Amino acid sequence: MTYRHVPVLLTEVLHYLNVTPGGRYIDGTLGGGGHTNALVGRSAPDGQILSFDLDPQAHVAAKKNIADSTHVTFVQDNFKNIKKNAHVHGFTHSNGILLDLGLSSGQLQDHFRGFSFLAEGRLDMRFGAQTDVTAEAILNTADQQTLYEIFRNFGEERLARPISKNIIEFRRQRPITTPKQLVDIITGVYGKRYHGRSKFNPATKVFQALRIAVNEELENLKQALPDAMSLLVSGGRLAVISYHSLEDRIVKDFFKQESRDCICSSETPVCVCGHHATLRIITKKPVVPTDAEIVENPRARSAKLRVAEKI
Fold it and tell me: How is domain 132-215 classified at the architecture level of CATH?
């Protein structure tokens, strides 16, 4: 399998990060190296890039795709540890940081990792080996209420309750180990309630929810945002590309809070929090892909880019 990942909103990222020659930039999600490669080119001749990815396959692919990797420091770790690694490698005064929260095409196409509902392997869904928790383990050990909460909270799945109930009933007979088994359970629930055709696979939200739960994606994002902002020089920018409402809401709320001098409740007559704004919001509304980019890369259709500048 060839690891592929088309960088989303590439032109917009370079523009809003205001990438300049000689700058120091952090790519929190290396993927196939598309964004990192562009950062290297724009910051040439002496720019430096620190690139993270927990997935070892991403590192192998990126090193082949980046034209000049001599200016890149590769770190195989989750971007939640961005602050620790930035200190180790001398990126505590960075000019820009990018977090692209999307799942790569390479990961989706790897049928042995179970990210896609079209996959043929086991239900793994781990980005890397830093956790023993897999989607298969959750499906076969979690109780019905926990499954419901995962599907509802992380996938915004409206049929979370009957789906979780049917999973419990199915696993009483045999373990759930493959994507096809899970898809069949979900489509069975949908088939009893909806009879029209849909352009989206009914298993999409459940697979998203399991992936988020396995990799603790939302908690990692909440940890990474303030740490990333602390690494920027004054005028440095943080750009985040999200792909669903849960991620986007976290980014939006963080930017909103950190752009205000006071975060006290509206019922508090006098400020007692002592909070001071640390950033200025650059994108009042999220930047989305052009129609041309969506035609070329349909997986970009749900992408939203938000950017803030450190004061």
Answer: Orthogonal Bundle (1.10)
Burial class for 260, CB neighbours closer than 10 Å (0-12, 13-18, 19+): middle
Helix (H/G/I), strand (E/B), else coil: 1:
coil
Tell me, what DSSP letter sits at residue 287? B
Q: Is residue 18 classed exposed, middle or buried when 0-12, 13-18 and 19+ CB atoms within 10 A define those classes?
A: middle
Count the helices and strands in the chain (H runs, E runs): 13, 7
Q: The CATH number of 10-106+217-310 is which of 1.50.10.10, 3.40.50.150, 3.90.226.10, 3.60.21.10? A: 3.40.50.150
Strands (E), the chain: 24-27, 48-52, 72-75, 94-100, 232-242, 279-281, 304-310
Please confirm whether the linkage preceding 21 is cis (ω < 30° from 0).
no
Spell out the per-residue pLDDT of the chain, length 311, in tens.
Answer: 555 668 999 999 999 999 999 999 999 999 889 999 999 999 999 999 999 998 888 898 899 889 899 999 999 999 999 999 999 999 999 999 999 997 755 555 555 566 666 666 789 888 876 678 999 999 999 999 999 999 999 999 999 999 999 999 999 999 999 999 999 999 999 987 765 565 678 899 999 999 999 999 999 999 999 999 999 999 999 999 999 999 999 999 999 999 998 888 877 888 888 889 999 999 999 999 999 999 999 889 999 999 999 99
Domain boundaries, the chain: 10-106+217-310, 132-215
Closest CA to 1 of 83, 86, 121: 121
What distance in Å separates the CA atoms of residue 306 and residue 256, rounded to the nearest whole number? 11
Distances (CA, A) of 175 to 138, 205, 303: 11, 21, 35
How far apart are alpha carbons 183 and 180 in whole angstroms? 5
